[in-house]
Design brief:
The chain is α+β, with helices and mostly antiparallel strands. It has helices spanning about 1-10, 35-50, 50-60, 75-80, 90-100, and strands at about 60-65, 105, 110, 125-130, 135-140, 145-150, 155-160, 165-170, 175-180, 185, 190-200, 200-210. Strands 1-12-11-3-2 form a 5-stranded mixed beta sheet. Strands 9-8-7-4-10 form a 5-stranded antiparallel beta sheet, with no helix packed on it. A two-stranded antiparallel sheet has the order 5-6. Strand 5 (about 135-140) and strand 6 form a beta hairpin. The protein is globular.
């Protein structure tokens, strides 16, 4: 499904010439819809205050939760441990998705925009994006290792190599490889949210990761 969307919903990001880095900043195609912009602001405020009632009222009755058939508010509540909201990862994951742009697909909107922006992704499971400026590609999985490149929305490819849990082995489009801290990148198939109007109101219809 994701591969088809990547082909059909490409946004204009040119493929890098040989030896050049590729960067991919988020876009926001949804801010022009005032009703959605207000809804997104309310969601972000609910995340800040960890408002379970507001979140559950904002999801569709049949929200998709996983690729195993999980759907609906009850599955969503269980999947994210919302009976104990103080320990739920939902606040971090949904907040991160909402802050990384928004792409339009007909009447549906998706956040973040990143996984729909690449011109091609033969293996989307191995595509990462350095989130903003400040990330560093290093020669070894250590903050003391020499810096190979400063990262700024760079597209990276995961490569097979041993590394500590909080580091990822990656390669730039120009061929240089090294290690980056896990918190400085986002996978193309990390959590993304889909939104649509249901009964005249915006609802989150999908919140899912993977392919």
């Amino acid at each position: 499904m994701v591969r088809t969307l990547l082909i059909c919903l490409l946004l204009a990001v040119p493929a890098p010439a040989s030896g050049q880095r590729q960067r991919l900043e988020p876009v926001d195609q949804c801010a022009s819809d005032a009703s959605f912009a207000a809804f997104r602001s309310e969601l972000l405020a609910a995340i800040e205050r960890r408002d379970v009632a507001f979140i559950l009222a904002s999801v569709a009755d049949d929200i998709s939760v996983d690729f195993g058939g999980g759907s609906g508010r009850d599955d969503f509540r269980r999947a994210w441990g919302l009976d104990r909201p103080e320990g739920s990862d939902l606040w971090r994951e949904l907040g991160a998705a909402l802050r990384l742009g928004c792409a339009r697909d007909g009447e549906s909107l998706w956040a973040p925009s990143l996984f729909r922006q690449l011109e091609h992704a033969d293996d989307p499971t191995g595509v990462l994006v350095a989130i903003g400026a400040g990330g560093v590609l290093r020669a070894a999985p250590s903050d003391a290792a020499p810096a190979i490149a400063q990262l700024d929305w760079d597209v990276l490819a995961w490569r097979s190599a041993e590394s500590p849990e909080d580091w990822l082995p990656v390669a730039l489009a120009d061929g240089r490889s090294g290690f980056v801290r896990r918190g400085q990148v986002r996978g193309l198939l990390d959590y993304r949210a889909g939104f649509a109007r249901v009964g005249g109101r915006w609802r989150m219809t999908v919140f899912i990761a993977g392919d």
